Amino acid sequence: MSGEDDYDKLSPEERAVRVKENRAREEKEQAALPYTWKQELAEVDLEVPVPKGTRGKDLTVVIQRKKLSVALKGKEPILSGELCKEIKVEESTWTIEDQQLVLVHLEKLNKQQWWENVLTHHPKIDTKQIVPEDSRLSDLDGETRGMVEKMMQLGKPTSDEIKKMEALKKFQEAHPELDFSNAKIS
After folding, report:
1. Overall pTM > 0.70
2. Cα angle: 12, vertex 13, 14; to 5 degrees
3. Superkingdom of this entry's organism (predicted)?
């Protein structure tokens, strides 16, 4: 398999094929894991299937800053290992749903970073291919939000410029006999 370094030399068609092949390999690798997972910038959610009838007391779940383990008591862990990035333990939780699914919610410490995998020894995904869900401005931290708002305003006229344009428009409507085609607003 060729490395990422030759990706730049590929034609758009070859890149599309490479991305498609990588995605298919990724999906196969991820499907082989004993859990499914999805993420947003701030959090990761795992669904771990367990035998029907499993209760919370039948489980041993360990959630630490850099470690995660889910096991049925007295059995080999279903998953266990080092997390790829640190989490906020106090904001991370687990529950059991319909006595057959362990839901693990991990709150990322760095909320501005995509995870390549959950546990470091599991196959990685290409985070460059992640298409984030539409986020609301209110979801962003203060500094990021301010930056985004500034970027959104770039190119938009200021309220002062809008007032000048409206005044000019009114003046044009009042004086249709004058030619304003070369008028500059200052």
Report:
1. no
2. 90
3. Eukaryota
Query: Rounded to whole angstroms, what are the CA distances from 2 to 15, 76, 182?
Result: 12, 37, 59
- Which pLDDT score is estimated for 38? 95
What are the backbone dihedrals phi and psi of residue 45, each rounded to the nearest 5 degrees, phi first? Answer: -120, 130
Summarize pLDDT for 14-25 with one digit per residue, the tens. 888 888 888 899
Paired strand residues for 37: 46
Where is 46: in which H helix or E strand? strand 43-49
CA 183 to each of CA 12, 27, 36, 82, 164: distance values in angstroms, whole numbers, following the listed order: 46, 59, 62, 66, 12
pLDDT, tens digit, for every residue of 62-74? Answer: 999 999 999 999 9
**Could you tell me which of 121, 26, 31, 127 has the C-alpha nearest to residue 67?**
121
Average pLDDT per 10 consecutive residues for the chain, totaling 186 residues:
66 87 90 94 96 96 98 96 97 96 96 93 86 62 67 65 77 77 64
Residue 91 near residue 39 (C-beta atoms within 8 A)? no
**Structural domains of the chain, ranges and CATH numbers in brackets:** 33-131 (2.60.40.790)
